[in-house]
Fold these 3 entries.
Entry 1:
Amino acid sequence: MANDLDEVTGPINEQGRDINVISKQISVQVGTGSLIFEIALWAVLPLIGGLALLTGALPQTYGLALLVLGALPGLVFLFMKISALAYLRKLQQKIQADASQIDNYLEQRVVVLNNVVGLVAKAIDLDKDVMKSVAAYRSGHNADAERNQASQKIDGIFSRISLACEAYPDLKAQAVIADAMRQNSYLQKEVTAARTLYNDTVGMWNQDVFAWPTKQIVAARQGYTTRIPFTASAETKAAARSVFF
């Protein structure tokens, strides 16, 4: 039987294909099969024991044992679900902690940005609404989508500052701006590392909430959904496609 994906004779896309993150949360759901599975864990052995006692198919001792111990699989699964719920809640807290780390570095970039805005405001056109939305990071209340958007806006503003510094030698020569750009470069590396950690944790979450039976059943009952990974800004993607040499 041939490979489903045959790299030798299969169709080849000569132009390549860009990869994008799908910004969609998928709800975790379970069907009637999972419900039947849970009921079976509680009922099958006691039912067999009861029938054995009524029909005399098994010795009375065995029948009573099945009645008494028949709920044991259900109890074990119950404790497994309790453990799974504790694990998923702990993983949620880790996602929040990783996201908070990104926020910390982004807020530091906002501080750096505010320090140089006054020096470059006359040279470049800074959008006041953009600055307000970026400064909102100080409130500490940001959804995943808002965090990603604010990060993209910060990237865009620093790119414009860099272009302004190239166009205006007087700006580039100022020590404050030079120091700010060095700090920004360092913080951007930290943001990248924090994003990687965040995305790793999100990837773990997205896999675990669909791990049937225990975690998926718990996730569905709790109304959990998948999480959206942190994505690169439009400016970063455009820059990556540029010709550097």
Note: The chain is about 70% helix and 0% strand.
Entry 2:
Amino acid sequence: MNLVRLLYVSKLKKNKNAVKDLMDILTEAITYNSPHEIYGALYFGNGYFVQCLEGERDKLEHLFYKKIIRDPRHEQCEVIYLEPIKSRLFANWHMKYAAFNKEVMHFFKDHHLEAFNPYLLTNHTISPFINLLAKQKDGISTLRLK
């Protein structure tokens, strides 16, 4: 099996209901990812998305280039990390939503001297950020309460 981990960043296009768009994206991700054996986590803050996906390379590339990059809710989609893996960090989630939190904010201030902006991730900070993302609790229930 040709397993890889892909990390991409994008911006949410300005809209009237960001929470609804985020819920729709998460629902669509879970529905699509489960039968395709794709796992991962999505983090959203300051108008930015960062999503880590794990699965077979051809399935992830199809998902990114045929679906995500064409999704009208995203703009400036960019893959910043794609590496082969032997085991999954996100094996328990077809799509986990890591809620906006102080731990991630501190990570960005400590490493990039700025609030959350995933375009600032570098070769030195991508792996620690992915590990931090893997440790976050699933926040879908908190999103539904908004």
Note: The two ends are 40 Å apart (CA to CA).
Entry 3:
Amino acid sequence: MPSTDPPTANGDSAPAPPRIGPHPGFISSSNQYGSEIKLRRMLKDNGCDPAREDNYRLQGVQLIDNVREHLQLPVRTFDTACTYFHKFRLNFRDSEYNYQDAALASLFVACKVEDTIKKSKDILVAAYSVKNPDKPTAPDDKFFDGPGKVIIGLERLILETVGFDFRTRYPQKLLVKVVRRILGTAAPARAFFATAYAMCIDMYKTFVPVKRTTFAMVLAVVELTARMRGGDDVLARVRRFAASRGKQCSRDAVTETMLDLLDLYVQHHKATKIGAAFDLATFIDIKIRLNTDLDAAAAPRYLFHCSRCDVADPNPLDPVSAASPAAAGSAWPPDASVRRTARGQDGTMRFIFDPEAARVEQQTAGAYFREEYEEYEVEVEEPLPPPHERDGGGGGGGGGGAWGGYRGGHRDRGDHRRGGPYGGYRGDRHHRGRGRYH
């Protein structure tokens, strides 16, 4: 087959220009865990008020719990819904949605994930019945058409926020095994388990489920319950069990989880299930002892903490720059900004479960979009024009022109053009520019 390349001066065919393929798209990989400083930065960059954020989080989780009990859904659906609710609120501003709609949409998605399927209108009717118990209504009421569309629209955003990664953790199942292993099945163990189970529900009103593993959450709940009602003997048995499982989670992670729960009970005493069963002074005393142990061991309050990131100013990400191929190749982008803007760009958003595979692919594709520049100066010799052209024919030399003459040799770094506002020519000009190479 004859070559279609154009011939060169030597008679050989020139190489064809490189073919430009389709846009590589944008990659998003789910992240099951996050540190405390990362969660704070996400809330700070979103412009969330800390006091308002706490109230919305508590009210949203309480709404999920009330609707779950009204529909008689299992606790694993509650765990999944709260996890989705926290991740969604970390990635979106409060002004972009209503926290009640986000809570109900998270429960709607969790029902599908956990195979306890409920229609969106069934969840809306249950929420309405919880708020207005004396006003019964039916799911086919047209009143729920508008809110139903809102929940379905938020469902897509929640799926993109979690990266279509439906792995969740259920600490209640492991809690039963741990309590039975430590205390057996006697009557005191049942009372101990009832308190620990209620505390496990309260734990989802914090960000612990998106920070810690299942075993760390269970050990923290069991030890805190032992400190509150078990006595020294039960606490010693819990510590021996935790020491025998030291490779599964660190002591610092358990301590941080307990302090997060104590912060909840101290600051929002009446908004929890355990708060009404114990005196506030009990929680404060336990918190003081834990902080004293941290000071004695010189251990940090939060794991993976960065003091500079904590005091830095908010830095909301520019959606356009976040979705650009150059940004995708040079840095690992946050979750929400790229997801929300990639739909309007040239590429396609793809969700990959393996973070390492996503990082390798992103680095490989980013090498073709990375642009680098260098600055250089070029000295250009320009011929001197005749005097009658230089000053419009009105004279020569130094002062015959309308604007006072002509300048000779000059080093120029600007962008001066012939026939500019001052009408003169400048010789011996030095050009300065930027050259791009890949």
Note: Residues 318-344, 394-438 have pLDDT under 50 and may be disordered.
